[in-house]
């Protein structure tokens, strides 16, 4: 229930001042007219008495008295007319002022009614003295239900009256902050809303405070949006701070790089400075490329996979976003995998040599037999005593040639089997082809398959490790020879194409073709009963480590075409070069 109301100062002051007549100097005019009129009448009575009692008026005739009386009446009438004119002028001024005041009041009333901000006036005792229509619309209560009400107010939340009373006491004490108060209220239909309330003292024309003017704005929806944005920002920051990637944003300034943002991972590696970002740029300051690079950080002693992007910052500046992923463990695993692959490659080469042992013995038997024959012939000629120096020299030269041939075969075998670190260097492509074909030709002749070369007029040098590329080419040639073992077509084609910055090598067979081509390069998948399924996978790894590509396709004439590419040692002048975008910060 509402407490007994005290007498409010606001209505009494307002209505008393409205009903109290405003006095001005205009009331002096009728007073003066009245005083003059009384004076004239007194003079007139006095003259009448003198006429009857004094001797000086005895000589004045009746006509003179009438003239004087008319002059007095005329003067009095003139004064009355002037007074009426003054009253008319003041009445007209007052009418215009009242019309202007009514128009001003109507304008302010219309402006007040069109406001969306709720206005409410408390007197000094906390009693509601005034509410505007916006406040009534905001809470759903009528003006008649609110004017004169004291605590508890109908829009207070049930069960929270003590909190509302504290807010009201703070308001009446004049200690409300200039930034306003955030309050909750309940509408007449039971729904609740949040409002921000600002308070200012209300003073009468004499400057005396007579109450408090409060303005309230419904901030339910803006608050909901702000809370949603805050929650989204917190979630986004939680994700960024929890990432294992080092994320940083910098802006180019005249004093260098300015660090605008850095997540927890970046700060753990490089601190809250822009030095780490500059270090991971890798000398690309002033330029922007959308490629991903791998960089070793001396300060963090870690390998990072770094990706750069340009984006617009909140203030419109062009800034650099950098995402650096720690790949130290991956590089360690890759290095261990590379060592294991080298061991597998060595084993593969040794296995290949074991498979070719019988063929190599037959290959070496020919020059050794020829050397023995030539030497026996020379010995026989010398023993007979009929040695012809020319024929003897010819036999010895042929024996030397056969010995050189056997030495080359042994040298190629040792070079192929010998384990060494991969070294990419400029090497003639024909040397790789000759060595690989020389090895494969032994098995090809055994299987009665010819290897036919299709070469361009000029083959550029390639940037490669010759031993590894020989192994790849030998593996592909052996697969082609084995695939054509039961084929009617007995020619294996090796085609080399110059593609400018690349050289493409194609091994074309007419064998049984591909089965499950999508699984061809999977580890431990093989179409051979005795195969391990690692040959093609190793070959692809070797080619990709040389920045090339290895793939297989079906031969339209039957069989399979294996192709791989290698970069040229000296790219042509018209080859494409990197054209990074300049940063327009």
Oligomer status: single chain
Overall residue-averaged pLDDT value: 77
Q: What structural class results from the helix and strand content?
A: alpha+beta
Determine the strand fraction and express it as a percent band. Answer: 15-25%
3D structure, described in words:
The strands form 5 sheets. This protein has a 5-stranded antiparallel sheet, with helices on both faces. With 585 residues, it is an alpha+beta fold. The chain contains 15 helices and 19 strands. A hairpin with a 4-residue loop joins strand 9 and strand 10 (302-312). Helices cover 48% and strands 21% of the residues. The two termini are 68 Å apart. Helix 2 runs antiparallel to helix 3, helix 11 (357-384) runs antiparallel to helix 12 and helix 14 (466-483) packs antiparallel against helix 15 (535-545).
């Amino acid at each position: 229930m509402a407490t007994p109301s005290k007498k409010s100062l606001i209505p009494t002051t307002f209505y008393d001042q409205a009903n109290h007549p405003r006095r001005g100097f205009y009331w002096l005019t009728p007073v003066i007219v009245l005083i003059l009129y009384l004076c004239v009448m007194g003079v007139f009575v006095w003259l009448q008495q003198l006429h009857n009692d004094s001797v000086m008026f005895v000589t004045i005739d009746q006509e003179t008295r009438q003239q004087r009386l008319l002059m007095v009446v005329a003067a009095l009438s003139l004064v009355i007319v002037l007074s009426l004119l003054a009253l008319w002028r003041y009445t007209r001024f007052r009418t215009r002022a009242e019309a202007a005041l009514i128009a001003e009041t109507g304008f302010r009333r219309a402006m007040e009614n069109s406001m969306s901000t709720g206005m409410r006036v408390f007197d000094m005792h906390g009693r509601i003295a005034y509410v505007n229509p916006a406040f009534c619309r905001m809470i759903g209560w009528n003006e008649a239900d609110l004017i004169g009400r004291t605590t508890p107010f109908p829009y207070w939340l049930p069960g929270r009256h003590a909190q509302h009373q504290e807010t009201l006491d703070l308001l009446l004490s004049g200690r409300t902050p200039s930034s306003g108060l955030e309050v909750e209220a309940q509408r007449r239909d039971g729904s609740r809303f949040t409002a921000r309330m600002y308070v200012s003292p209300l003073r009468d024309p004499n400057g005396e405070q007579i109450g408090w003017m409060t303005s309230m704005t419904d901030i339910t929806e803006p608050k909901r949006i702000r809370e949603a944005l805050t929650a989204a920002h917190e979630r986004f920051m939680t994700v960024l701070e929890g990432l294992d990637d080092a994320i940083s944003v910098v802006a180019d300034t005249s004093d260098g790089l300015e660090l605008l943002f850095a997540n927890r991972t970046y700060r753990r590696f490089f601190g809250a400075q822009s030095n780490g970002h500059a270090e991971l740029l890798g000398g690309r300051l002033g330029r922007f490329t959308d490629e991903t690079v791998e960089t070793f950080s001396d300060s963090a002693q870690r390998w990072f996979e770094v990706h750069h992007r340009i984006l617009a910052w909140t203030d419109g500046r062009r800034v650099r976003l950098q995402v650096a992923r720690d790949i130290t463990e991956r590089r360690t695993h890759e290095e261990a995998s590379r060592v294991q692959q080298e061991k597998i490659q060595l084993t593969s080469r040794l296995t290949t040599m074991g498979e070719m042992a019988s063929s190599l013995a037959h290959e070496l038997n020919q020059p050794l037999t020829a050397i023995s024959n030539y030497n026996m012939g020379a010995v026989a000629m010398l023993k007979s005593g009929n040695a012809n120096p020319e024929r003897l020299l010819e036999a010895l030269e042929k024996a030397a040639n056969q010995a050189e041939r056997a030495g080359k075969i042994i040298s190629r075998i040792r070079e192929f089997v010998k384990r060494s670190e991969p070294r990419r260097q400029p090497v003639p492509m024909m040397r790789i082809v000759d060595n690989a074909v020389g090895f494969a030709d032994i098995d090809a002749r055994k299987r009665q398959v010819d290897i036919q070369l299709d070469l361009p007029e000029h083959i550029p040098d390639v940037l490669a490790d010759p031993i590894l590329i020989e192994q790849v080419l030998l593996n592909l040639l052996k697969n082609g020879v084995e695939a054509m073992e039961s084929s009617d077509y007995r020619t294996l084609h090796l085609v080399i194409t110059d593609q400018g910055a690349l050289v493409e090598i194609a091994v074309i067979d007419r064998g049984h073709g591909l089965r499950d081509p999508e699984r061809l390069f999977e580890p431990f998948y093989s179409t051979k009963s005795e195969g391990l399924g690692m040959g093609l996978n190793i070959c692809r790894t070797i080619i990709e480590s040389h920045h090339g590509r290895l793939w297989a396709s079906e031969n339209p004439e039957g069989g399979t075409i294996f192709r791989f590419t290698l970069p040229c040692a000296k790219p042509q002048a018209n080859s494409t070069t990197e054209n990074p975008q300049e940063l327009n910060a």
